[in-house]
Design goal:
224 residues, alpha+beta, Protocatechuate 4,5-dioxygenase, Chain B, 3-stranded antiparallel beta sheet, two-stranded parallel ribbon, 7 helices, 29% helix, globular, metal-binding, ferrous iron binding, Xdiol_dOase_suB, Extradiol_dOase_DODA, zinc
Length: 224
């Protein structure tokens, strides 16, 4: 029996700790209130049979830019909170999430990346749409992303790989992402999730905020 291959998901998380505070969501999102429900139900859709549940989750985040070239991996056993947002209520800065790190697993990830000549180092610390001041181009970029990643697209894996690698040339890219940091996790997820026989991702769309912030999520290898 072949080894079980865990699914890969690319998630648009929204601004700040939006789903964890009692106020703010209704004030910030006009177009939809479905985004938190979509995220809340996502894990169950990735593992609907409640089987082969993961022992750990490898998270690729845009929320810590490396001070040197390459990637940095947290090997902290208990990563600290980083409040890298502004303009929220006081409650947002009191959120505590006691995530558990895994130093040994971090070392394994580092070794695997280095085998492919990817620069990486360990550090002991702990939405795709990220430009909230520019509305023009947001939907054009979202349409391009769907055509590149979604399973109902007819593109081959090679064509998808080429497009996601050159994402900065996509319609609306410079408006959606003036800086690449918040889109690069989607590139990593696509590279990890796509397979030759089934390169497309299942889409879990949570709507729009401010007519420009997309809550689009993509998952490869789902069991549904």
């Amino acid at each position: 029996m072949p080894a079980f291959r865990h699914p890969v998901a690319a998630i648009s998380h929204g601004p700040g700790p939006l789903w964890l505070i009692s106020s703010g969501f209704d004030e910030m999102v006009r177009d939809t209130v479905t985004a938190p429900e979509v995220l809340r139900s996502l894990f169950g859709k990735l593992y609907p049979k409640d089987e082969n549940l993961p022992k750990r989750i490898l998270l690729v985040s845009a929320h810590f830019e490396s001070s040197s070239s390459g990637f940095e991996i947290s090997n902290a056993a208990n990563p600290e909170m980083i409040y890298d947002y502004y303009g929220f209520s006081e409650e947002a800065y009191e959120v505590k999430y006691p995530a558990k790190g895994d130093p040994a697993f971090a070392q394994r990830v580092k070794e695997q990346l280095e085998k492919d000549h990817i620069k990486v180092k360990l550090v002991n610390q702990g939405t795709h749409r990220r430009n909230p001041t520019l509305i023009e181009g947001a939907k054009a970029f979202q349409n391009w992303l769907d055509s590149t990643l979604a399973s109902d697209s007819k593109l081959t894996m090679e064509e998808r790989s080429e497009q996601i690698t050159n994402w900065h040339n996509a319609p609306g890219a410079k408006f959606a992402h003036s800086s690449p940091d918040h889109f690069l996790p989607f590139v990593v997820a696509a590279g990890a999730g796509m397979e030759e026989k089934e390169p497309g991702a299942k889409t879990f769309f949570g709507g729009w905020a401010f007519d420009q912030l997309s809550f689009a999520n993509y998952a490869w290898g789902t069991q549904e």
